[in-house]
Amino acid sequence: MAVEAQVYARNMEVTDRIQDYVSKKFSRLDRYMNGIEEVRVDLTYSKAARSAADRHVAQITVRGKGFIMRSEERADDIFAALDTALDKVKSQMERYKGKRQRGRGDGKSAAEVLPLPAEEEVLKEEAQLIARRKHFVLTPMNEAEAIEQMSLLGHESFFVFYNVHTHSVNVLYRRRDGLYGLIETEVG
Known about the structure:
The chain is of the alpha/beta class.
């Protein structure tokens, strides 16, 4: 089954040439990893970039059951940015796949261990104070998997996850000394 990539553009037009290029390159991503549910390609042209080599930005987000991978690259040509970002995603997939094959030992994936928590309603008064809202599904995982996901996403400061061992939402963060800290939550 070929992967269909969704292409979004800002400050530029997605031409047929770009759409065909993305379709051709991204249709083979499922060869690297099974379970890919969504591939999103964000293309941006930044006229105000300091360097001409940083004007075209390609950001690729790959979502699947139990993983999210993201890469962003800048270049003077949109096709060069796409190629470099795609190479990064492929290497992330290979690294992630290698760690998955070593496995957790019981034969179950992190997503199978625990059902996902239910979504809660957001109050209207709070919505007016929040400048940006992101929604994502918490996948049950252990601390080592959370560190891996944090590095795969390129998050330098923190990562929120559902800890399969403590059955609670945890926040993993990087300390100034380069080590990690863990905030374990509890409903009071």
